[in-house]
Write a structure and sequence with these properties.
The protein contains 7 helices and 4 strands, in the order ββαββαααααα. It has 203 residues and is mainly alpha-helical. The strands form 2 sheets. A two-stranded antiparallel sheet has the order 1-2. The protein has a two-stranded antiparallel ribbon with strand order 3-4. The chain is flat, with a radius of gyration of 29 Å.
Length: 203
């Protein structure tokens, strides 16, 4: 097995020649030439900017959903359920911060289906979270912001992959389910009105 160490000698013509330590004269993999096949990929300014924004979102989601460890347990809670205990102001503040996560996902180029799924996570959090006491417990377990940041990180790495296709299927299923629910509610309202009118006519 060859060692991955190289030494640089000087040819008779004065040019530098790279040799492996076993003396074969064949450069080892991972050439020192910056443009060679073994050169480390150079991170662009855009990639560094994206990485920095993702770090900020991870820190924000941890603050909102898992900043504090419950004493005597391994369970973590964040500011979202705690601040949510404050009437009106608490829910409005955490809702704005959660919306910021989704807005950053859209700005970073997350697929539209993924953004829609992230909004759905927030809707579930808002609807169930509005229930007194039970809602705050649900917020602590649901962790909508951490869910959304994980979705975003996965889609940034693979924007058109299996995860994005799964998001589209989930959003489509949710849309169909919502449409069926609205139809059922509409049918129930018509049936109730018809029954009331019929009952009034009998009287």
């Amino acid at each position: 097995m060859r060692l991955g160490v190289r030494a640089t000698d000087v040819n008779d013509d004065g040019e530098g020649a790279v040799r492996t330590v076993d003396g074969t004269g064949v450069p080892a993999s991972g050439s020192t030439d910056a443009d060679g096949p073994g050169a480390a990929p150079v991170e662009t300014d855009a990639e560094r900017g994206t990485a920095a924004r993702l770090r900020r979102l991870r820190e924000l989601s941890r603050l909102l959903d898992g900043a504090v460890v419950v004493p005597g347990t391994r369970f973590r809670v964040g500011l979202d359920p705690l601040v949510g205990l404050l009437p009106v102001v608490g829910d409005a503040t955490t809702a704005l911060l959660s919306a910021y996560v989704v807005a950053e996902a859209a700005a970073l180029g997350a697929p539209r289906a993924t953004v829609a799924r992230m909004v759905g996570n927030l809707v579930v959090d808002a609807v169930v979270g509005s229930i007194p006491v039970v809602g705050d417990l649900f917020d602590a377990a649901w962790r909508a912001n951490e869910r959304n940041v994980r979705l975003l990180e996965a889609r940034v790495d693979d924007p058109g992959g299996a995860g994005a296709r799964a998001d589209r299927r989930l959003v489509l299923a949710a849309g169909v389910g919502l449409a069926l629910l609205l139809l059922a509610l509409g049918a129930a309202a018509v049936a109730a009105a018809w029954w009331l009118l019929g009952y009034g006519g009998v009287v």
